[in-house]
């Protein structure tokens, strides 16, 4: 598909007012997206596990304005509180997607959003938040164009989410989503994420992600700045090649359930992401001492037990621990006994692979 296919024909229906609600999850990348060009297109393909418990729920009330304005009319409440500081972000998002949803200036919007995870946990909330909002807007479009297929709905929701926050395009569906053109992934596109188009080994359908909160609160360098620093990065082209290669290797691993192969690629990707940060100009480090303490403990535990516990990292200090359901009891024991001490205030989140966003009944 190309961008122009997301520009709608004149709508067949009218919607004076209404309310819609979606709950959309976060996702954790196995092969990382780091580096982009306009408009929010990835420098390399990525693939992620969709999460189940870490979610944003967004309610969108809309009512037709008497006269369409030239600007957007948006009210925003986060966890019940008016948050004027979020409005410019939503405005920028609306500006970027206006061409694909021409009704945006015709309505007054009241948005209410809340997260299932603590706001200050340092968990990237942009993926769940942007995808939940994009899905609400798509429900409005579907109301005006009821013939729309589910496939197109999901693709366009992913396409719009991407324009809000790149990785958000991988949150619409699950359990595994690929984003970015890659020769081994049929129909893959830089424009939107697509569910893994092969049979996924059942081990991965119930994989766990225990998110150890090493550092709660805002990170020092935003991912926007980080992506930008890949533009003149001395290792950029090698890194993009590596991501392509790792995705090629991960595809059969996900099909046959090769957990050792999975660990090798996922951990290399996590460290490669942070290696890019540490070698950009200016350089920066988002890991904390306890990030490394946990990694060392994980390696020790794996050597001792042979269990399939591996780690990955986001653009931050928190550690995502990935492991199969069959080994989860022993691994949770290990986390409680040995790793909680490295978490800020002892906090961690128990999550698992999920199948994507849900429309909430009104
Ligand atoms: O979606 P953004 O722009 O916040 O970038 C996210 C980048 C990583 O989380 C570090 C990697 C990824 O692929 O999700």
Relevant terms:
362 residues; four-stranded antiparallel β-sheet; alpha+beta; eight-stranded mixed β-sheet; binds (3R)-3-hydroxy-3-methyl-5-(phosphonooxy)pentanoic acid; single chain
Helix/strand-derived class? alpha+beta
- Terminal Cα span: 33 Å
CATH architecture annotation name of the largest domain: 2-Layer Sandwich
Reading the helices and strands in chain order gives EEEEEEHEHHEEHEHHHHEEHEE
Radius of gyration: 20 Å
CATH level-1 class of the largest domain? Alpha Beta
Number of domains: 2
Number of strands: 14
The chain-level mean pLDDT equals 95
The CATH topology of the largest domain, please?
Answer: Ribosomal Protein S5, domain 2
Total DSSP helices:
9
* Large-scale geometry: globular
**Poorly predicted runs:** none
Helix amount, in percent?
25-40%
What's the main sheet like? 8 strands, mixed
Q: What molecules are bound to this protein?
A: (3R)-3-hydroxy-3-methyl-5-(phosphonooxy)pentanoic acid
Describe the structure.
- It is a single chain.
- The chain has 362 residues and is α+β, with helices and mostly antiparallel strands.
- The protein has 2 domains: 196 residues, Ribosomal Protein S5, domain 2 (2-Layer Sandwich), CATH 3.30.230.10; 151 residues, 2-Layer Sandwich (Alpha-Beta Plaits), CATH 3.30.70.
- The protein is built from 9 helices and 14 strands.
- The strands form 3 sheets. Strands 1, 4, 5, 6, 7, 8, 9 and 14 form an 8-stranded mixed β-sheet that branches.
- Strand 2 and strand 3 form a beta hairpin.
- Helix 2 packs across helix 3 and helix 6 packs antiparallel against helix 7.
- The two termini are 33 Å apart.
- The model has no long low-confidence stretch (mean pLDDT 95).
- The site of (3R)-3-hydroxy-3-methyl-5-(phosphonooxy)pentanoic acid has 15 residues, from helix 5.
């Amino acid at each position: 598909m190309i961008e122009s296919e997301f520009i709608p024909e004149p709508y067949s229906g009218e919607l004076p007012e209404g309310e819609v609600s979606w709950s959309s999850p976060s996702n954790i990348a196995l092969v990382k997206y780091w580096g982009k060009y306009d408009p929010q297109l990835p420098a390399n393909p990525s693939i992620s596990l969709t999460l189940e418990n870490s979610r944003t729920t967004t309610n969108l009330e809309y009512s037709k304005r008497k006269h369409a304005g030239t600007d957007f009319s948006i009210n925003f409440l986060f966890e019940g509180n008016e948050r004027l500081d979020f409005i410019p972000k939503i405005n920028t998002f609306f500006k970027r997607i206006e061409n694909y949803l021409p009704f945006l200036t015709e309505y007054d919007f009241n948005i209410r959003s809340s997260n299932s995870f603590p706001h200050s946990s340092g968990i990237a909330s942009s993926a769940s938040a942007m995808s939940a909002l994009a899905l609400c807007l798509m429900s409005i479009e579907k109301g005006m164009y009821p013939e729309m297929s589910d496939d197109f709905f999901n693709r366009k929701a992913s396409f719009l989410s991407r324009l809000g926050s790149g990785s958000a395009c991988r949150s619409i569906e699950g359990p595994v989503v690929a984003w970015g053109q890659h020769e081994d992934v049929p129909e893959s596109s830089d424009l939107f994420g697509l569910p893994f188009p092969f049979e996924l080994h059942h081990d991965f359908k119930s994989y766990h992600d225990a998110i150890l909160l090493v550092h709660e609160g805002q990170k020092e360098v935003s991912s926007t700045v980080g992506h930008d620093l890949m533009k003149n990065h001395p290792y950029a082209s090698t890194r993009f090649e590596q991501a392509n290669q790792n995705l090629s290797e991960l595809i059969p691993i996900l099909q046959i359930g090769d957990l050792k192969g999975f660990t090798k690629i996922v951990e290399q990707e996590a460290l490669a992401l942070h290696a890019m940060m540490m070698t950009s100009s200016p350089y920066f480090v988002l890991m904390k001492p306890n990030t490394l303490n946990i990694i060392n403990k994980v390696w020790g535990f794996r050597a001792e037990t042979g269990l399939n516990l591996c780690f990955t990292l986001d653009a931050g200090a928190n550690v995502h621990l990935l492991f199969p359901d069959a080994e989860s009891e022993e691994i949770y024991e290990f986390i409680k006994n040995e790793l909680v001490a490295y978490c800020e205030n002892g906090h961690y989140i128990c999550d698992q692979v999920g199948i994507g966003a849900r429309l909430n009944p009104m």
